[in-house]
Amino acid sequence: MTIAGRVIGDGVKLVRLLGRGSHSVVYFGVTREGQPCAVKIFPPHLTEFADREFRHALNLNHPRIAHVQQRTTFDTAPALIATYAKGVTLFERYALKPALIEERQAFLLTLSHLLDALHFLHSRGLVHRDIKPDNIMVEENGSAKLVDYDLSGPAYEVMSLPTRIGTAAFLSPEANRGEPLGPENDLYGVGVLLGWGIHGQLPEVGEALPATRDPLTPVWRSLTREDPRKRPNDAQQVKEELLELALGTYL
């Protein structure tokens, strides 16, 4: 079925496919007023899933977060309309690796914006639970926005059954065990990204990447500690430490 060209919600025209996820497809759309937007369409059987994302994301108004504006339907399928996040995914943007050697200033700006988004999210009592490159849209200069809240929810939410939430390469130890997740889980994901920026690769299962001369290595180490109680849980403090250590000849 051709979806492009059809109209959804209050006059939003679907233009082209942006991407496919495990729970939805996302289209680029244009509002009646000519403003770009993103339209996320779920299969009908995931209506409760879409409603949960809308409920948690509705009031997240922040320049580093893609704002979910409306809950609507497309035929019988639930759909969400959100602000359009410019750019490409983090891994697409930083094709030259390691990013902290090839494009240090831009990558530091990306991490700073990600930490700004998480600080805001955590201050609202929510955690993202799926920090990964596909959920971070990055512009040419490194400006970034956090997107996709279908796994988000209240900090330390207790599920009826232990549930592994997140993407394998970025799962914290506690997420892998199916435990309730707090801000330190999201910051573990930031730590994995920071390690990727330093080394230019993600570790294999059971592999420990070596320390380097990069002054950001201590931040990477602290964010990826096995014990969440020994990990930072304040995104603003992590940002401040990151930028302080980055000052000097490495910038």
UniProtKB/TrEMBL annotation:
Q: What is its EC number?
A: 2.7.11.1
Where are the bilayer-spanning segments? none
Q: Which UniProt keywords apply?
A: ATP-binding, Kinase, Nucleotide-binding, Transferase
> Which Gene3D superfamilies does the entry mention?
Transferase(Phosphotransferase) domain 1
Q: Which SMART domains match?
A: S_TKc
Residues annotated as domain Protein kinase: 12-251
Which enzyme type, at the first EC level?
Answer: transferase
Where, by residue number, does ATP bind? 40
Q: For this protein, what is any one GO molecular function term? A: protein serine/threonine kinase activity
Under the heading PANTHER family, the entry gives: SERINE/THREONINE-PROTEIN KINASE (PTHR24347)
Kindly provide the name given to this protein in its UniProt entry. Answer: Serine/threonine-protein kinase
Organismal lineage: Bacteria, Thermotogati, Deinococcota, Deinococci, Deinococcales
